[in-house]
Amino acid sequence: LELLHVYVDHRLDVVRRRCAYRRRKAQERLHLVDGLLLALANIDEVVQVIRTSQDSEEARHRLIEIFDLSEVQAVYILDMPLRRLVALEVLKLQDERAELLETIGDLTRILDSDAALRELVSDELAEVAATYGTPRRTRLREAAHSPTAAVPLEVADGPCRVLLSSTGLLARVGIAGDDAARGDAPQRSKHDVVASWAPATTRGTVGVVTDKGRLVKLDVIDLPGLPPVAGPPNVRGGAPVAEFLDLDPGEHVLALVTLGTEGPWIALGTATGVVKRVNRDFPAKGDAFEVIRLDDGDRVIGVTELATGEEDLVFITSDAQLLRTPASGVRPQGRAAGGVAGIKCAPGEQVVFFGAATPADALVVTVSGTRAALPGTDSGSAKVTPLTEYPYKGRATGGVRCHRFLKGEDTLLLGWTGPAPAQAATATGEPVPLPAEHGRRDGSGVSVPAPIAAVSAVGRW
Length: 461
Prior knowledge:
Blueprint: H1 2-41, H2 43-51, H3 56-67, H4 71-78, H5 87-112, H6 114-132, E1 141-143, E2 146-147, E3 159-165, E4 169-174, H7 175-181, E5 194-201, E6 205-210, E7 214-219, E8 239-240, E9 253-257, E10 265-270, E11 274-278, E12 288-290, E13 300-306, E14 312-317, E15 321-326, E16 332-333, E17 340-341, E18 351-357, E19 362-369, E20 381-386, E21 400-401, E22 411-419, E23 422-425, E24 431-432, E25 446-447, E26 454-457
Protein backbone atom coordinates (compact mmCIF):
# COMPACT_ATOMS: atom_id res chain seq x y z
CA LEU A 1 0.00 0.00 0.00
CA GLU A 2 2.84 2.37 0.78
CA LEU A 3 4.39 1.71 -2.63
CA LEU A 4 1.06 2.48 -4.29
CA HIS A 5 0.80 5.77 -2.39
CA VAL A 6 4.32 6.71 -3.48
CA TYR A 7 3.51 5.91 -7.10
CA VAL A 8 0.22 7.85 -7.05
CA ASP A 9 1.95 10.85 -5.47
CA HIS A 10 4.59 10.64 -8.19
CA ARG A 11 1.91 10.59 -10.90
CA LEU A 12 0.15 13.58 -9.28
CA ASP A 13 3.41 15.52 -9.28
CA VAL A 14 4.18 14.60 -12.90
CA VAL A 15 0.71 15.54 -14.14
CA ARG A 16 0.71 18.79 -12.12
CA ARG A 17 4.06 19.84 -13.58
CA ARG A 18 2.96 18.81 -17.05
CA CYS A 19 -0.23 20.88 -16.80
CA ALA A 20 1.72 23.88 -15.49
CA TYR A 21 4.19 23.59 -18.38
CA ARG A 22 1.42 23.32 -20.98
CA ARG A 23 -0.44 26.29 -19.47
CA ARG A 24 2.72 28.39 -19.52
CA LYS A 25 3.34 27.50 -23.16
CA ALA A 26 -0.28 28.28 -24.05
CA GLN A 27 -0.07 31.63 -22.26
CA GLU A 28 3.13 32.50 -24.11
CA ARG A 29 1.51 31.64 -27.42
CA LEU A 30 -1.62 33.62 -26.53
CA HIS A 31 0.57 36.64 -25.81
CA LEU A 32 2.07 36.40 -29.32
CA VAL A 33 -1.32 35.85 -30.96
CA ASP A 34 -2.73 38.95 -29.20
CA GLY A 35 0.18 40.97 -30.52
CA LEU A 36 -0.34 39.71 -34.08
CA LEU A 37 -4.07 40.45 -33.96
CA LEU A 38 -3.34 43.97 -32.72
CA ALA A 39 -0.81 44.49 -35.51
CA LEU A 40 -3.15 43.15 -38.19
CA ALA A 41 -5.98 45.36 -36.90
CA ASN A 42 -3.68 48.39 -37.33
CA ILE A 43 -1.66 47.11 -40.25
CA ASP A 44 -1.36 50.45 -42.08
CA GLU A 45 0.07 52.21 -39.01
CA VAL A 46 2.42 49.29 -38.34
CA VAL A 47 3.75 49.36 -41.91
CA GLN A 48 4.21 53.16 -41.70
CA VAL A 49 6.19 52.85 -38.46
CA ILE A 50 8.45 50.18 -39.94
CA ARG A 51 9.05 52.10 -43.21
CA THR A 52 9.94 55.37 -41.45
CA SER A 53 12.39 53.69 -39.04
CA GLN A 54 16.14 53.76 -39.71
CA ASP A 55 16.72 50.15 -38.62
CA SER A 56 14.98 47.21 -36.94
CA GLU A 57 16.05 48.35 -33.48
CA GLU A 58 14.33 51.70 -33.94
CA ALA A 59 11.24 50.01 -35.42
CA ARG A 60 11.03 47.71 -32.39
CA HIS A 61 11.18 50.59 -29.90
CA ARG A 62 8.58 52.61 -31.80
CA LEU A 63 6.16 49.67 -32.03
CA ILE A 64 6.44 49.14 -28.26
CA GLU A 65 5.77 52.82 -27.53
CA ILE A 66 2.97 53.45 -30.03
CA PHE A 67 0.95 50.21 -29.66
CA ASP A 68 1.84 49.35 -26.05
CA LEU A 69 3.39 46.01 -27.06
CA SER A 70 5.86 43.90 -25.16
CA GLU A 71 9.33 43.37 -26.54
CA VAL A 72 8.52 39.76 -27.44
CA GLN A 73 5.42 40.86 -29.37
CA ALA A 74 7.29 43.59 -31.20
CA VAL A 75 10.07 41.22 -32.32
CA TYR A 76 7.49 38.63 -33.43
CA ILE A 77 5.63 41.27 -35.51
CA LEU A 78 8.85 42.36 -37.19
CA ASP A 79 9.61 38.73 -38.06
CA MET A 80 6.08 38.15 -39.42
CA PRO A 81 6.11 37.14 -43.15
CA LEU A 82 3.99 39.14 -45.58
CA ARG A 83 1.73 36.16 -46.30
CA ARG A 84 0.24 36.62 -42.84
CA LEU A 85 -1.37 39.90 -44.00
CA VAL A 86 -4.49 38.22 -45.42
CA ALA A 87 -8.01 38.13 -44.04
CA LEU A 88 -7.99 34.34 -43.76
CA GLU A 89 -4.94 34.51 -41.51
CA VAL A 90 -6.83 36.81 -39.16
CA LEU A 91 -9.64 34.25 -38.88
CA LYS A 92 -7.11 31.51 -38.11
CA LEU A 93 -5.52 33.61 -35.40
CA GLN A 94 -8.92 34.38 -33.86
CA ASP A 95 -9.79 30.66 -33.80
CA GLU A 96 -6.39 29.86 -32.31
CA ARG A 97 -6.90 32.51 -29.64
CA ALA A 98 -10.25 30.98 -28.66
CA GLU A 99 -8.68 27.51 -28.41
CA LEU A 100 -5.79 28.81 -26.34
CA LEU A 101 -8.17 30.54 -23.92
CA GLU A 102 -10.15 27.30 -23.54
CA THR A 103 -6.97 25.27 -22.98
CA ILE A 104 -5.66 27.72 -20.41
CA GLY A 105 -9.00 27.62 -18.62
CA ASP A 106 -9.06 23.81 -18.48
CA LEU A 107 -5.46 23.59 -17.25
CA THR A 108 -6.07 26.28 -14.65
CA ARG A 109 -9.11 24.39 -13.37
CA ILE A 110 -7.01 21.23 -12.97
CA LEU A 111 -4.16 23.08 -11.24
CA ASP A 112 -6.52 24.89 -8.86
CA SER A 113 -8.48 21.77 -7.85
CA ASP A 114 -6.93 18.71 -6.23
CA ALA A 115 -10.06 16.68 -7.06
CA ALA A 116 -9.81 17.58 -10.76
CA LEU A 117 -6.10 16.67 -10.75
CA ARG A 118 -6.76 13.29 -9.18
CA GLU A 119 -9.59 12.60 -11.62
CA LEU A 120 -7.25 13.26 -14.54
CA VAL A 121 -4.57 10.95 -13.09
CA SER A 122 -7.19 8.24 -12.51
CA ASP A 123 -8.46 8.49 -16.11
CA GLU A 124 -4.93 8.30 -17.50
CA LEU A 125 -4.05 5.23 -15.41
CA ALA A 126 -7.29 3.54 -16.50
CA GLU A 127 -6.40 4.20 -20.13
CA VAL A 128 -2.93 2.72 -19.64
CA ALA A 129 -4.43 -0.36 -18.00
CA ALA A 130 -6.92 -0.82 -20.84
CA THR A 131 -4.18 -0.47 -23.47
CA TYR A 132 -1.33 -2.46 -21.91
CA GLY A 133 -2.92 -4.56 -19.18
CA THR A 134 -2.67 -8.35 -19.48
CA PRO A 135 -4.06 -11.15 -17.31
CA ARG A 136 -1.77 -12.65 -14.67
CA ARG A 137 0.54 -15.20 -16.25
CA THR A 138 2.42 -16.39 -13.17
CA ARG A 139 0.75 -19.04 -11.08
CA LEU A 140 0.72 -18.33 -7.35
CA ARG A 141 1.93 -21.19 -5.17
CA GLU A 142 2.00 -21.75 -1.41
CA ALA A 143 5.13 -23.86 -1.73
CA ALA A 144 7.16 -25.53 -4.42
CA HIS A 145 5.13 -27.96 -6.57
CA SER A 146 1.94 -27.08 -4.67
CA PRO A 147 -0.65 -24.91 -6.46
CA THR A 148 -2.74 -22.92 -4.03
CA ALA A 149 -5.81 -21.96 -5.95
CA ALA A 150 -8.73 -24.31 -6.19
CA VAL A 151 -10.68 -24.47 -9.45
CA PRO A 152 -12.79 -21.29 -9.65
CA LEU A 153 -16.45 -22.13 -9.31
CA GLU A 154 -17.45 -19.49 -11.86
CA VAL A 155 -15.58 -21.30 -14.68
CA ALA A 156 -17.94 -23.68 -16.45
CA ASP A 157 -16.67 -27.14 -17.35
CA GLY A 158 -17.21 -26.86 -21.09
CA PRO A 159 -15.37 -28.43 -24.03
CA CYS A 160 -12.23 -26.66 -25.21
CA ARG A 161 -8.97 -27.21 -27.04
CA VAL A 162 -5.52 -26.89 -25.49
CA LEU A 163 -2.97 -25.31 -27.83
CA LEU A 164 0.84 -25.43 -27.86
CA SER A 165 2.61 -22.91 -30.10
CA SER A 166 5.91 -23.43 -31.90
CA THR A 167 7.47 -20.88 -29.53
CA GLY A 168 6.46 -22.85 -26.41
CA LEU A 169 3.29 -21.01 -25.34
CA LEU A 170 0.27 -22.80 -23.85
CA ALA A 171 -3.36 -21.63 -23.97
CA ARG A 172 -6.90 -22.94 -24.16
CA VAL A 173 -9.75 -21.86 -26.41
CA GLY A 174 -13.44 -22.71 -26.13
CA ILE A 175 -15.04 -24.91 -28.77
CA ALA A 176 -17.75 -22.38 -29.66
CA GLY A 177 -15.41 -19.48 -30.26
CA ASP A 178 -12.88 -21.84 -31.77
CA ASP A 179 -15.22 -23.19 -34.44
CA ALA A 180 -16.37 -19.70 -35.32
CA ALA A 181 -12.78 -18.62 -35.76
CA ARG A 182 -11.48 -21.47 -37.85
CA GLY A 183 -10.30 -20.74 -41.36
CA ASP A 184 -7.69 -21.55 -43.94
CA ALA A 185 -5.83 -18.20 -44.02
CA PRO A 186 -2.75 -18.07 -41.77
CA GLN A 187 -2.45 -15.26 -39.26
CA ARG A 188 0.43 -12.99 -40.27
CA SER A 189 1.62 -12.23 -36.77
CA LYS A 190 3.84 -13.71 -34.08
CA HIS A 191 3.13 -17.00 -32.31
CA ASP A 192 0.46 -18.08 -34.77
CA VAL A 193 1.85 -21.56 -35.51
CA VAL A 194 -0.02 -24.17 -33.48
CA ALA A 195 2.55 -26.95 -33.08
CA SER A 196 0.21 -29.30 -31.17
CA TRP A 197 -3.31 -29.36 -29.76
CA ALA A 198 -5.53 -31.68 -27.76
CA PRO A 199 -9.29 -31.72 -27.08
CA ALA A 200 -10.22 -31.36 -23.43
CA THR A 201 -12.65 -29.77 -21.00
CA THR A 202 -12.02 -26.65 -18.95
CA ARG A 203 -11.78 -28.62 -15.70
CA GLY A 204 -10.07 -31.59 -17.31
CA THR A 205 -6.47 -32.74 -17.73
CA VAL A 206 -4.21 -33.25 -20.73
CA GLY A 207 -0.81 -34.86 -21.11
CA VAL A 208 2.39 -33.10 -22.17
CA VAL A 209 5.08 -35.33 -23.71
CA THR A 210 8.72 -34.23 -23.61
CA ASP A 211 11.81 -35.20 -25.58
CA LYS A 212 13.02 -37.24 -22.59
CA GLY A 213 10.10 -39.65 -23.00
CA ARG A 214 8.12 -38.31 -20.04
CA LEU A 215 4.41 -37.55 -19.92
CA VAL A 216 3.38 -34.84 -17.46
CA LYS A 217 -0.25 -34.20 -16.56
CA LEU A 218 -1.47 -30.63 -16.94
CA ASP A 219 -4.65 -29.07 -15.50
CA VAL A 220 -6.47 -27.18 -18.26
CA ILE A 221 -8.04 -24.67 -15.85
CA ASP A 222 -4.61 -23.19 -15.11
CA LEU A 223 -4.03 -22.17 -18.74
CA PRO A 224 -4.90 -18.68 -20.02
CA GLY A 225 -8.04 -18.59 -22.17
CA LEU A 226 -7.99 -17.05 -25.63
CA PRO A 227 -10.88 -14.92 -26.93
CA PRO A 228 -12.55 -15.79 -30.26
CA VAL A 229 -10.90 -14.19 -33.30
CA ALA A 230 -11.78 -13.87 -36.98
CA GLY A 231 -9.33 -16.52 -38.14
CA PRO A 232 -7.01 -19.10 -36.60
CA PRO A 233 -6.31 -18.20 -32.94
CA ASN A 234 -3.18 -16.24 -32.16
CA VAL A 235 -1.36 -18.14 -29.40
CA ARG A 236 0.76 -15.12 -28.41
CA GLY A 237 -1.82 -14.58 -25.67
CA GLY A 238 -0.69 -17.81 -24.03
CA ALA A 239 1.88 -18.37 -21.29
CA PRO A 240 5.27 -20.14 -21.40
CA VAL A 241 5.36 -23.87 -20.70
CA ALA A 242 7.84 -23.35 -17.86
CA GLU A 243 5.15 -21.59 -15.80
CA PHE A 244 3.08 -24.78 -15.61
CA LEU A 245 5.57 -27.65 -15.69
CA ASP A 246 8.72 -28.50 -13.77
CA LEU A 247 11.05 -29.56 -16.58
CA ASP A 248 14.57 -30.91 -16.19
CA PRO A 249 17.47 -28.85 -17.58
CA GLY A 250 17.55 -29.25 -21.37
CA GLU A 251 14.13 -30.94 -21.47
CA HIS A 252 11.71 -29.68 -24.15
CA VAL A 253 7.96 -30.13 -24.65
CA LEU A 254 7.01 -31.82 -27.92
CA ALA A 255 3.25 -32.38 -28.00
CA LEU A 256 -0.08 -32.43 -26.18
CA VAL A 257 -2.07 -35.68 -25.87
CA THR A 258 -5.41 -36.73 -24.42
CA LEU A 259 -5.68 -38.94 -21.34
CA GLY A 260 -8.90 -40.78 -22.16
CA THR A 261 -9.48 -44.52 -22.26
CA GLU A 262 -10.64 -44.92 -25.88
CA GLY A 263 -8.62 -45.15 -29.09
CA PRO A 264 -5.13 -46.37 -30.07
CA TRP A 265 -3.36 -43.41 -28.32
CA ILE A 266 0.14 -42.24 -29.28
CA ALA A 267 3.16 -43.14 -31.39
CA LEU A 268 6.69 -41.86 -30.74
CA GLY A 269 9.85 -41.68 -32.83
CA THR A 270 13.37 -41.11 -31.52
CA ALA A 271 16.53 -39.52 -32.93
CA THR A 272 18.12 -42.92 -33.57
CA GLY A 273 15.14 -44.18 -35.57
CA VAL A 274 13.21 -46.14 -32.92
CA VAL A 275 9.40 -46.16 -33.18
CA LYS A 276 6.91 -47.08 -30.49
CA ARG A 277 3.14 -47.25 -30.18
CA VAL A 278 2.08 -46.85 -26.55
CA ASN A 279 -0.89 -48.54 -24.90
CA ARG A 280 -3.24 -46.46 -22.75
CA ASP A 281 -1.53 -47.73 -19.62
CA PHE A 282 -1.69 -44.95 -17.04
CA PRO A 283 -0.29 -45.35 -13.52
CA ALA A 284 -2.79 -44.95 -10.71
CA LYS A 285 -0.74 -42.28 -8.95
CA GLY A 286 1.65 -39.53 -9.92
CA ASP A 287 1.51 -36.55 -12.23
CA ALA A 288 4.42 -37.68 -14.45
CA PHE A 289 5.57 -41.02 -15.86
CA GLU A 290 7.70 -42.42 -18.68
CA VAL A 291 6.07 -43.51 -21.95
CA ILE A 292 9.23 -44.97 -23.53
CA ARG A 293 12.52 -46.39 -22.28
CA LEU A 294 15.30 -44.48 -24.02
CA ASP A 295 18.85 -45.68 -24.59
CA ASP A 296 21.70 -43.44 -23.48
CA GLY A 297 22.09 -40.48 -25.83
CA ASP A 298 18.72 -40.99 -27.50
CA ARG A 299 15.76 -38.62 -27.29
CA VAL A 300 12.21 -38.40 -28.58
CA ILE A 301 11.93 -36.37 -31.80
CA GLY A 302 8.19 -36.55 -32.47
CA VAL A 303 4.94 -37.53 -30.76
CA THR A 304 1.65 -38.01 -32.57
CA GLU A 305 -1.75 -39.13 -31.34
CA LEU A 306 -3.34 -41.71 -33.62
CA ALA A 307 -7.03 -41.44 -34.43
CA THR A 308 -7.64 -44.90 -35.90
CA GLY A 309 -4.29 -46.71 -35.88
CA GLU A 310 -4.43 -46.94 -39.69
CA GLU A 311 -2.44 -43.76 -40.36
CA ASP A 312 0.96 -43.64 -42.02
CA LEU A 313 4.00 -43.14 -39.80
CA VAL A 314 6.69 -40.93 -41.37
CA PHE A 315 10.38 -40.61 -40.47
CA ILE A 316 12.63 -37.94 -42.06
CA THR A 317 16.37 -38.02 -41.41
CA SER A 318 19.09 -35.38 -41.58
CA ASP A 319 20.52 -36.89 -44.80
CA ALA A 320 17.14 -36.40 -46.57
CA GLN A 321 15.80 -39.94 -46.30
CA LEU A 322 12.05 -40.50 -45.76
CA LEU A 323 10.41 -43.66 -44.48
CA ARG A 324 6.64 -44.05 -44.90
CA THR A 325 5.26 -47.12 -43.17
CA PRO A 326 1.77 -48.13 -41.94
CA ALA A 327 1.07 -47.59 -38.23
CA SER A 328 -0.71 -50.94 -38.22
CA GLY A 329 2.68 -52.59 -38.70
CA VAL A 330 3.88 -51.42 -35.27
CA ARG A 331 2.62 -53.47 -32.32
CA PRO A 332 1.48 -51.40 -29.31
CA GLN A 333 3.62 -51.79 -26.19
CA GLY A 334 3.45 -50.89 -22.53
CA ARG A 335 5.04 -47.84 -20.94
CA ALA A 336 8.25 -49.60 -19.91
CA ALA A 337 9.08 -50.91 -23.38
CA GLY A 338 11.78 -49.33 -25.55
CA GLY A 339 10.05 -49.56 -28.94
CA VAL A 340 11.13 -51.28 -32.17
CA ALA A 341 13.27 -50.40 -35.17
CA GLY A 342 11.75 -47.70 -37.32
CA ILE A 343 14.13 -46.17 -39.89
CA LYS A 344 17.73 -47.22 -40.37
CA CYS A 345 19.91 -44.12 -40.05
CA ALA A 346 23.23 -43.81 -41.84
CA PRO A 347 26.35 -43.35 -39.66
CA GLY A 348 26.50 -39.79 -38.30
CA GLU A 349 22.87 -39.04 -39.26
CA GLN A 350 19.74 -38.82 -37.12
CA VAL A 351 15.99 -38.35 -37.36
CA VAL A 352 14.80 -34.72 -37.69
CA PHE A 353 11.06 -35.46 -37.86
CA PHE A 354 8.59 -38.14 -36.86
CA GLY A 355 4.84 -37.92 -37.25
CA ALA A 356 1.68 -39.50 -38.61
CA ALA A 357 -0.56 -38.46 -41.47
CA THR A 358 -3.49 -39.57 -43.58
CA PRO A 359 -2.11 -39.72 -47.12
CA ALA A 360 -5.18 -38.27 -48.88
CA ASP A 361 -4.12 -34.60 -48.55
CA ALA A 362 -0.86 -34.82 -46.59
CA LEU A 363 2.20 -32.76 -47.52
CA VAL A 364 5.90 -33.26 -46.87
CA VAL A 365 7.89 -30.08 -46.14
CA THR A 366 11.69 -30.28 -46.05
CA VAL A 367 14.20 -27.49 -45.46
CA SER A 368 17.86 -28.03 -46.36
CA GLY A 369 20.97 -26.14 -45.30
CA THR A 370 24.54 -26.57 -44.12
CA ARG A 371 25.87 -28.07 -40.92
CA ALA A 372 28.51 -25.34 -40.67
CA ALA A 373 25.96 -22.54 -40.20
CA LEU A 374 25.01 -21.34 -36.74
CA PRO A 375 21.51 -22.41 -35.67
CA GLY A 376 18.86 -19.98 -36.89
CA THR A 377 21.15 -18.19 -39.37
CA ASP A 378 20.80 -20.38 -42.47
CA SER A 379 17.48 -19.91 -44.27
CA GLY A 380 18.35 -22.71 -46.71
CA SER A 381 15.89 -23.95 -49.31
CA ALA A 382 12.44 -25.47 -48.79
CA LYS A 383 10.44 -28.02 -50.76
CA VAL A 384 6.77 -29.01 -50.48
CA THR A 385 5.72 -32.40 -51.90
CA PRO A 386 2.54 -34.52 -51.60
CA LEU A 387 3.05 -37.52 -49.30
CA THR A 388 1.56 -39.79 -51.96
CA GLU A 389 4.74 -39.31 -54.03
CA TYR A 390 6.65 -41.49 -51.55
CA PRO A 391 6.21 -45.29 -51.61
CA TYR A 392 5.62 -47.47 -48.57
CA LYS A 393 8.69 -49.16 -47.09
CA GLY A 394 9.08 -51.68 -44.30
CA ARG A 395 10.47 -50.90 -40.89
CA ALA A 396 14.24 -51.05 -40.29
CA THR A 397 14.95 -49.83 -43.83
CA GLY A 398 16.53 -46.57 -44.98
CA GLY A 399 13.48 -45.25 -46.81
CA VAL A 400 13.81 -43.14 -50.00
CA ARG A 401 15.43 -39.82 -50.79
CA CYS A 402 13.07 -36.88 -50.24
CA HIS A 403 15.27 -33.84 -50.97
CA ARG A 404 18.22 -33.24 -53.29
CA PHE A 405 20.86 -30.98 -51.79
CA LEU A 406 22.07 -27.97 -53.74
CA LYS A 407 25.68 -26.82 -53.81
CA GLY A 408 26.79 -25.89 -50.28
CA GLU A 409 23.96 -27.88 -48.63
CA ASP A 410 24.69 -31.07 -46.71
CA THR A 411 21.84 -31.63 -44.24
CA LEU A 412 18.13 -31.25 -43.62
CA LEU A 413 17.47 -28.54 -41.07
CA LEU A 414 13.78 -29.41 -40.71
CA GLY A 415 11.17 -31.87 -41.89
CA TRP A 416 7.40 -32.02 -41.45
CA THR A 417 4.41 -34.07 -42.59
CA GLY A 418 0.79 -33.10 -42.11
CA PRO A 419 -2.46 -32.11 -43.81
CA ALA A 420 -2.55 -29.30 -46.37
CA PRO A 421 -2.37 -26.34 -46.38
CA ALA A 422 0.80 -25.75 -44.34
CA GLN A 423 2.36 -22.63 -42.87
CA ALA A 424 5.89 -22.01 -41.61
CA ALA A 425 7.37 -19.69 -39.01
CA THR A 426 10.75 -18.57 -37.65
CA ALA A 427 11.96 -19.33 -34.13
CA THR A 428 10.26 -16.13 -32.90
CA GLY A 429 6.93 -16.96 -34.54
CA GLU A 430 7.25 -14.70 -37.60
CA PRO A 431 5.50 -16.30 -40.62
CA VAL A 432 7.58 -17.48 -43.57
CA PRO A 433 5.97 -18.18 -46.98
CA LEU A 434 6.42 -21.69 -48.33
CA PRO A 435 7.02 -22.46 -52.03
CA ALA A 436 4.41 -24.13 -54.22
CA GLU A 437 4.09 -27.92 -54.23
CA HIS A 438 6.93 -29.74 -55.97
CA GLY A 439 6.06 -32.70 -58.19
CA ARG A 440 9.34 -34.59 -57.74
CA ARG A 441 9.84 -36.42 -54.47
CA ASP A 442 13.66 -36.10 -54.64
CA GLY A 443 13.86 -32.63 -56.22
CA SER A 444 15.80 -29.71 -54.77
CA GLY A 445 14.28 -26.92 -52.71
CA VAL A 446 13.54 -23.24 -53.33
CA SER A 447 15.23 -20.46 -51.37
CA VAL A 448 13.13 -18.97 -48.55
CA PRO A 449 13.47 -15.43 -47.09
CA ALA A 450 14.07 -16.42 -43.44
CA PRO A 451 15.16 -19.46 -41.40
CA ILE A 452 12.20 -21.80 -40.85
CA ALA A 453 11.95 -23.23 -37.35
CA ALA A 454 8.44 -24.74 -37.38
CA VAL A 455 5.73 -25.88 -39.80
CA SER A 456 2.09 -26.51 -38.99
CA ALA A 457 -1.21 -27.23 -40.72
CA VAL A 458 -3.61 -24.32 -41.18
CA GLY A 459 -7.20 -24.56 -40.01
CA ARG A 460 -7.07 -28.33 -39.41
CA TRP A 461 -6.69 -28.57 -35.66
